[in-house]
Amino acid sequence: xxxxxxxxxxxxxxxxxxxxxxEVSLEVKKGEIFGVIGYSGAGKSTxxxxxxxxxxxxxxxxxxxxxxxxxxxxxKLRDVRKKIGMIFQGFNLLKTATVYENIAIPLKLAGLPSSxxxxxxxxxxxxxxxxxxxxxxxxxLSGGQKQRVAIARALAHEPEVLLSDEATSALDPExxxxxxxxxxxxxxxxxxxxxxxxxxxxxxxxxxxxVAVMENGQVIEEGRVFEIFTxxxxxxxxxxxxxxxxxxxxxxxxxxxxxxxxxxxxSFVGExxxxxxxxxxxxxxxxxxxxxxxxxxxLKDKPFGRLVxxxxxxxxxxxxxxxxxxxxxxxxxxTVLDAGKEVAVNG
Length: 347
Ligand SMILES: Nc1ncnc2c1ncn2[C@@H]1O[C@H](COP(=O)(O)OP(=O)(O)OP(=O)(O)O)[C@@H](O)[C@H]1O
Fold this sequence. Notes:
Elements: E1 2-13, E2 16-28, E3 33-38, H1 44-51, E4 59-64, E5 67-68, H2 74-81, E6 84-88, H3 99-109, H4 114-127, H5 143-155, E7 161-165, H6 173-190, E8 193-198, H7 201-207, E9 210-215, E10 218-224, H8 225-230, H9 235-242, H10 251-258, E11 263-269, H11 274-284, E12 288-298, E13 303-312, H12 315-327, E14 331-333, E15 335-336, E16 342-343
Parallel strand pairs: 3-8, 3-9, 6-7, 7-8
Antiparallel strand pairs: 1-2, 1-4, 4-5, 9-10, 11-13, 11-14, 12-13, 15-16
Helix pairs in contact: 3-4, 3-5, 4-5, 5-6
Bound molecules: adenosine-5'-triphosphate.
């Protein structure tokens, strides 16, 4: 549905060159919610703006719905862009226009007859749950409601693709969740492909099927969300995943426990995978697992859990227990044995 092939973008300002994108290739499938995450300056905005050619790549090709946008004339590009809706962090609403007008004006400009304009405004304002706000002005709406208007405005063009440029970054956590729920609903109801950029792992966790991690103008890691959560490879990806978990164990406790066995972190997908495996460990080996911290969080379609566990037992028994956990498909990391000796166990 969306395909970027070796897309590069170089900005030149004050005789200085900035390579914002370096040969980025990506494919987003029809009906998928695909997230791009990265820290500030990684190139996310440039990337998403290259998809509808708000920013023209310096080199490389961009396809949307089978059409190569980078090969089109301006007139044809205008046509294809109708298939691509976009929402922004700052909502970009007309302040002096009502909710109705904000959605209707671009439809009128696109040449739709007024009966169709009215039908679409009413339909999509209802999809975003703002039927009672048609005559309100943006200043009379909350941030979340403004973003709902922007979403209705984008949907009213009945696009194939929705691009979301940090759409929830200006919102509080609760409102963020309600907007993410709305994106999920839209994706399911209309089978719209969504490409979003964000710097928050929570957004990826809640709605995305696949994710690409960007750093320095490049995609450094890419995969299905649960794969990335359970097996992050790059240090930045690990940092993003860790940002969702608060599992610090006080140093004094670590010091005391390490004398009697390793402290390990288990990652697993599926609600029940962690606890039963630990129960098995205590049955099969001369090892006593003690959970120091634990959290189960919901990925888009499956639960994902992390447990920090102390395995009390001698080295041979705890190593066998770790091998057993690995064999059950659980990722085991960060073991520290007595005397602070690091043991690599990569699941
Ligand atoms: N119009 C421009 N002119 C010059 N440099 C630019 C321009 N737009 C972006 N850049 C530079 O390109 C790099 C990538 O910027 P970009 O905005 O794409 O990153 P980002 O990941 O979206 O960051 P943020 O989350 O802070 O917006 C940065 O170094 C930025 O300064």
